[in-house]
Amino acid sequence: MQKEKGHIDYNTPVIIIKDLYKSFGDNDVLKGIDLTVYKGENVVVLGRSGTGKSVLIKMISGLLKPDSGTVNVLGYDVPSLNEKKLRELRMKLGFSFQNSALYDSMTVRENLEFPLVKNSHHLAKKDLNNSIERVLDAVGLLQSINQMPSELSGGQRKRIGIARTLIMQPQIMLYDEPTAGLDPITSTEINNLIVAVQEKFHTSSIIITHDLTCAKATGDRVAMMLDGQFVKVGSFDSIFDTKDERINSFYEYNFIQ
Amino acid sequence: MKYVISKNVDSFFTDVSDVFGFVVRFFKEVFKPPFEFNEMIKQCYNVGVRSVALITVTGFITGLVFTKQSRPSLAEFGATSWLPSLVGIAVIKSLAPLVTALICAGKVGSGIGAELGSMKVTEQIDAMDVSGVNAFKFLVVTRIVATSICIPLLMMYAAFVSLMGSYIDIHSHENITLLTFFQNAFQKITFLDFASTLFRSVIYGFTISLVGCFKGYNTTQGTEGVGKAANMAVVVSMFLIFIEEMAIIQMVNWIR
Fold first, then answer.
1. Per its UniProt record, what InterPro entries does this chain match (chain B) (predicted)?
2. Cβ of A63: how many Cβ atoms within 10 Å?
3. How many CB atoms lie within 10 A of CB A240?
4. Alpha-carbon gap, residue B200 to B99, rounded angstroms
5. CATH domain A41-60+89-256 topology
6. CB contact under 8 A, B126 and A101
7. ipTM
8. What 3-state DSSP class applies to A110?
9. Looking at chain A, which residue has its C-alpha nearest residue B38?
10. Which of B118, B131, B138 is opposite residue A168, by nearest beta carbon?
11. First to last CA, chain B
12. Is A103 an interface residue toward B (CB < 8 Å)?
């Protein structure tokens, strides 16, 4: 099923990346990345493991600094931000980590409370509870509110991870391998959740994945990354309408898998 | 990749610079609001209260064994009445701070290294940072402050328990009251001795938590890295404790 694109505002770019380079020692990870994400758009960054996809979103959120190039997010020039401005930007971003990164020592409720309490010091208990219930309801896990992360399944952890980012009402969502390690049914649930988040919370998103089903289900646009560069950017179907051997083998390998 | 001198030398200086940056960041953050009081109290409980049982047993045995070992030598000169003074000097000036620091380096240092290390490799620290929370202040500053407060308190408790262990042995041989024992034990202890012991304990607490936090916060290489971080937190902090012990005692002797 192809997604509708009526909700995208092509006049308002929220992420503009230009000529981005990053290396770790001798390993050149990103070699000149250009990407623009528009308001309300879901862009999937597709590629094999180790091609630098996660490095890209870590630079968008300011967790890593680029060697050269610009990363502009919601009008902030990320690499040059001071600590205060970076925190201001991060409150507008939601980052869903590959392994969910739930705080082990806290219950689901405390995991969700944590960013909210730390960032809004004068929040009433009632408003706090309403926010928690709203996002847990959105991810369909209201019943897990008092469970510890260790008591949750992989799919549930992913959903709680997404809920924890949604509680801050972000404008941009960054998903790092949202379906990695999940069975096909749970993956489909996560894909549906990503689309539902986009529609309900009007977020723009970058989804990092190597899963073609996820890319097709969630992406308005797909950027195919190979060896630290985008070799093709466009709709899911246009990406694979190519004679490029590397892209075709990626496609075939995914479905053989 | 080109190295300025060699791989090992470059890496050593990079590490030194990273530790220096870590310490500078701690002092920048520690006085800057918001202060994480709740987390600090939780860490005080973890470091202090949860170490009491271990400190009680080790402190008591230290005092008891030291007294038993010292008795024959003093008995040769008919000087067993000096035992309380000897034990007082040994425990307060050296044994209590060292034993407390080494026990805590093993228990607290490895715990901090492993906890922060596993948070690092499972991206929980990154998750805190990207949600607008200052992870360094919440995780590192609170642990360093809590440990720097709790180790001196544990040291004083360890000294008390050691002296009690010593008293039990002395009391079984000589008819001496607890009050007289403590009067004799503190007879040769000056304010400078006590102040230097307290100061050393603060430094040991700071060192243990700083090393644990640094190793944990900079963990790489997955679960293997977590084990290394916990291990290195103990080894490095124990090594530094002995260096600091030597340096501070030398300084105190100059002052004296």
1. Permease_MalE (IPR030802)
2. 19
3. 20
4. 12
5. Rossmann fold (3.40.50)
6. yes
7. 0.87
8. helix
9. A118
10. B131
11. 52
12. yes
